[in-house]
Write a structure and sequence with these properties.
This is Ubiquinone biosynthesis protein. It is found in: Mitochondrion. Residues 179-247 form the COQ9 C-terminal domain. Its main location: mitochondrion. The structure is a single chain. The chain has 278 residues and is mainly α. It has 11 helices and no strands. It has helices spanning 2-38, 61-71, 74-77, 81-90, 106-118, 120-123, 140-158, 163-173, 179-196, 205-224, 233-273. Helix 2 (61-71) crosses helix 4 (81-90), helix 9 (179-196) crosses helix 10 and helix 10 runs antiparallel to helix 11. The longest helix has 41 residues, at 233-273. It is globular.
């Protein structure tokens, strides 16, 4: 009898301890939940590209302030760690804050590429409908040319007309670890230019246009890095030749595709006339 009473007392004590443990766990979970609701959640970048809503900034505020200050030193000190350190000091941070940029001076190149691309829409405005005295609204091709020239002009303005700095940027972009982000920015630039030019294609040419424009821009930018003509007139002429080549080759390729389609249909009809069921 005494053994049963002792066992019953022990079980009751264990049950009471379990209840207290569950109560404490529930209270802690509720407090954590309420705290997480009060704390601001980190912003998440979208995985898609939309023109209806603004894109999130490419860098957080601290990195933005450092890079924007550092880029003002690029014309004199180049795409270097020195420019990054000077920018950190100008922005009110210690030199050690450059550790925020594991890619080092290449981050200055990416800053230049991104800010130039995202600023195109505010620097180039096309009148619509045409203003008085104009013959008509610019075509898509003319708009593409104007946008490419404006982007190239951005290299001159941002780098103080120093072509050596452009060569430095191109050299950094050519490094193996930097090629993927550089190619992505090149693609995004082509996409932005075609969109701003008013291209609304929804067929396979959507991809070929962007790939073609990317190759034209890359070749023209390399040519610009060695251009010594006044106001970079030779670069503009080089661009016109490349665009004309792509227009002619593109038209020839379309003719080849149409000819191939015609020949294939003619062959099918010939086989059907011979009694073969296709």
């Amino acid at each position: 009898m005494a053994f049963q009473t002792k066992t019953t007392t022990t079980l009751r004590r264990l049950l009471q301890q379990r209840k207290r443990t569950l109560s404490t766990t529930t209270t802690t979970t509720a407090a954590a939940s309420s705290t997480s609701q009060l704390l601001p959640r980190p912003k998440q970048s979208r995985t898609y590209h939309s023109y209806e809503t603004p894109q999130p900034p490419p860098y957080p505020p601290v990195e933005t302030s450092i890079l924007s200050a550092a880029f003002t030193h690029v014309p004199s000190t180049g795409f270097t760690q020195t420019s990054l350190r000077l920018g950190a000091l100008d922005a009110g941070y210690r030199e050690a804050s450059t550790n925020h940029f594991p890619r080092g001076e290449f981050e200055l190149v990416m800053w230049h590429l991104r800010t130039q691309r995202t600023g195109l829409h505010s620097r180039v405005q096309f009148p619509s409908p045409p203003e008085e005295g104009q013959l008509g609204k610019l075509g898509v091709g003319a708009k593409v040319r104007a946008l490419v020239l404006e982007r190239l002009r951005g290299n001159v303005d941002a780098l103080g007309g120093n072509t050596e700095r452009l060569k430095e940027a191109l050299a950094l972009m050519s490094l193996a670890s930097h090629v993927p982000p550089s190619l992505r920015e090149l693609y995004l630039l082509g996409d932005e230019i075609w969109f701003l030019a008013g291209d609304n294609a929804v067929d396979a040419s959507w991809y070929t246009k962007r790939a073609t424009l990317a190759s034209v821009y890359a070749a023209t930018e390399i040519y610009q890095s060695a251009d010594q003509s006044s106001d970079h007139k030779d670069t503009a002429e080089f661009l016109d030749r490349r665009l004309e080549e792509q227009r002619v080759l593109g038209g020839a390729w379309r003719n080849v595709k149409e000819w191939a389609a015609f020949q294939s249909m003619a062959g099918v009809n010939l086989v059907r006339n011979l009694g073969v069921r296709i």
